Amino acid sequence: MTGAAGAGLVLTEVSSGYGAVSIVRGVSLAIRPGESVALLGKNGMGKTTLLKTILGLVGLRSGAIAIDGRSVADLSPAKLVALGVGYAPQEQPLFQDLSIRDNLRLALASDRLLPEALARVFGHFPFLKDRLSQRAGTLSGGEQKMLILARALMLRPRLLLIDEISEGLQPSVVDRIAAALAAERVANGTTMLIVEQNLDFALRVANRWAALKLGEIDDEGPVDGDARARILRHLSV
Ligand SMILES: Nc1ncnc2c1ncn2[C@@H]1O[C@H](COP(=O)(O)OP(=O)(O)OP(=O)(O)O)[C@@H](O)[C@H]1O
């Protein structure tokens, strides 16, 4: 393994929500450095809200969140980035009128870092290299998802939070994204928390899983021979 090792993430009785509504309820989850955990569950169970709570985009109501033993409660987005947190969000994450190059540049504090960071993401997604000046809004849905992930990888995150990246993608694109995530883990020991509804993808990219139901962790386990059947119980109606 080369480069910085992954970060540890510990959630202790985390609760959060919107207005008067509680969404995430008492979630405890410890992810060791280098682990990849798939967070599964039906629509509306609170998966995205939990990721946003870790990032401070949704306020923490009670409980604690620590990265490498350090509370993230009062950290600004810039400090989270400095700690090595990368985020691939589900909704409207690209600047459609900016070029691929400028969308990637926005991940960095300084252009000095650009050549090395671009070289890293070109290794995962070579098509970006030939189309750097193309407007992001003209990319296909799958290409946009790969650009979103590439942007999250620009700073070589130690903890990567990914929200339903495989949604609506054709199998060949899902394969490329799974390969990129696997390569990052091998190269950098990146810790990952991956919100998913695509069970096959989740089982490929994670070594552990947790199922969220109405804001609570309903079940969890390792990705082993029993995982598929156990998870399906949580995804089926
Ligand atoms: N900004 C918001 N204000 C109020 N309620 C919200 C807001 N965002 C989400 N919710 C509600 O919180 C609940 C959980 O939503 P969340 O997006 O976290 O679920 P999810 O498990 O990620 O689902 P999906 O797979 O559909 O993205 C839903 O009932 C949703 O309507």
UniProtKB/TrEMBL annotation:
Residues 9-237 form the ABC transporter domain. GO terms for molecular function: ATP binding; ATP hydrolysis activity; branched-chain amino acid transmembrane transporter activity. One of its GO terms (biological process) is L-amino acid transport. Keywords: Amino-acid transport, ATP-binding, Nucleotide-binding, Transport. Belongs to the ABC transporter superfamily. This is ABC transporter ATP-binding protein.
